[in-house]
Give the backbone structure.
Amino acid sequence: MHVLITGAAGMIGRKLTERLVREDGLNGQAIDKLTLTDIVKPAAPAGYTGKVKAYAADIADTKQSAKMVSERPDVIFHLASIVSGEAELEFDKGYRINLIGMLGLIEAVRRTGEDYHPKFVFTSSVAVFGAPFPHSIPDEFHLTPLTSYGTQKGICELLLADYTRKGFLDGVGIRLPTICVRPGKPNKAASGFFSGIIREPLAGVEAILPVSESVRHTHATPQSAVGFLIHAAGLTKEQLGHRLNLTMPGVNVTVGEQIESLRRVAGDKVASRIRREPDELIMRVVGGWAERVDAKRARELGFKAEDSFDDIIRTHIDEELGGNIAA
Amino acid sequence: MHVLITGAAGMIGRKLTERLVREDGLNGQAIDKLTLTDIVKPAAPAGYTGKVKAYAADIADTKQSAKMVSERPDVIFHLASIVSGEAELEFDKGYRINLIGMLGLIEAVRRTGEDYHPKFVFTSSVAVFGAPFPHSIPDEFHLTPLTSYGTQKGICELLLADYTRKGFLDGVGIRLPTICVRPGKPNKAASGFFSGIIREPLAGVEAILPVSESVRHTHATPQSAVGFLIHAAGLTKEQLGHRLNLTMPGVNVTVGEQIESLRRVAGDKVASRIRREPDELIMRVVGGWAERVDAKRARELGFKAEDSFDDIIRTHIDEELGGNIAA
């Protein structure tokens, strides 16, 4: 089996690659070839014995996307994307990468040949939804994004479904919740604090909380996100039907419950490293985001997130901190 | 006021142009200039005293769309579209006109200048919805089109909302129900019989009914469709908010009720000119279409369709047949 990952140098792309190599396959099928692309050259995975092509490529350049699929990967994980904040600030860049990039890639697939229909896993986002919301967002809720990023993801979902319906590829779109705890340095994303208030205190560093503790949100770990991608690749057309863009499950908690969880798992001293510093802009942005999602269909199809926020924190401590908490 | 109509040579485009000329304005504002474009040159309207530019242009050619907006029309009615059946058969052509054409036009608006934000009325369709449906489709129902045409319309709706949110234009999208009674010759559209079973018998010609009388659908006259366009152009950004793609109201009836209505309005002899000839393919296609729509928000915003199917038939007799029924 040949697997292509776009956006392979990103956090999720690297974790997906590592897991495929570690498990020596995808849903039980051996992988003899990996193609890894990103705007910077992705690292070749350690310990992999199959063929690897890893190279830098601009996803919005149709020659490059044609090259990516020219060797007919059986499964494509399309992760390449400009993130929400950047797509909002740089309108042209966001549309170029997130929309034109997707269109170029699926057109490249279509033009590769009538006998070529790869599995195509697309990472969408709950940013396709925009306030006002019902108590919990049902699977049948309409897409009214309030960002260009969410708009681009919503458009790609529609394209994915139509290209699948026409038989050009075998698509599945997964709407990721907020990924928490995101490893690495703090960034300036409006959502950054959801991870920051866990990651920084665990590392002995003070974190800033810019919103009220009553803010509610849905989270899944990077490990769950990778699990969603792998599970999605194993679903059949028959299981998916025409409605192949699925809201993923997650752990639904308030910020106050996140902090309580941190206290339970890591103690009072760690939990005290959070400083309240309300930020009107962040509060307003976060106020337009989805709080609860039903994710009924995804659960029925076997997608699994963590059971509790305690589990989310423990996963971070085990996987990213080698089990060590800064006292 | 300067008004641009794309798709001006089509049935709705011509009726819209005629009405604007007849009323000598748009929602009470005088129109001193009309730009009319289509893939064939639209006819200049009779009796109009303002400036008219009517010319043939390919909407998907970005030089042409830039030309269309170069004189900064205050209101744009974007009607140009490849119809459902054709978009399904000619995949590239459908995407080229319905998606790339729209993208080119709104990009042309954006690039015309930061001080230019025209009212932009986009004609969408209930084809953005795909079965299975609840009893009646609510305004918050998700878009799961089962045709490339519906997909393209759904994508344009998302683009329209994002370009409006960013302040590049002042958009409103109206999802038209099936237009009935469509004047002119019978065509091969799967939906053609909805009009055919009224139009042909009234003209003394036999019509074929390919589906069961229990098939339910929502209809509005061409006159109502033009009314929707004009009403949409008069709505403010404040009235619309972020959710600016609206499902239009219509008269909801079964085919049996359509025929009963024809009998009431035109008599038994006319109603007897319908021959039942079941067509499996048409039955299957029509089975995926929306039956009932709530259109709650559109009604609240003042959009009005006919009150009954009798009214729909009477409008056809008055407007298209000069009051005459073939005995």
Notes: The mean pLDDT of chain A is 96. Residues 290 and 325 of chain A are 31 Å apart (CA to CA). The interface with chain B takes residues 91, 130, 134, 139-146, 148, 151, 154-155, 158-159, 161-162, 165-166, 242-243 of chain A (CB under 8 Å). The first strand of chain A starts at residue 2 and ends at 6.
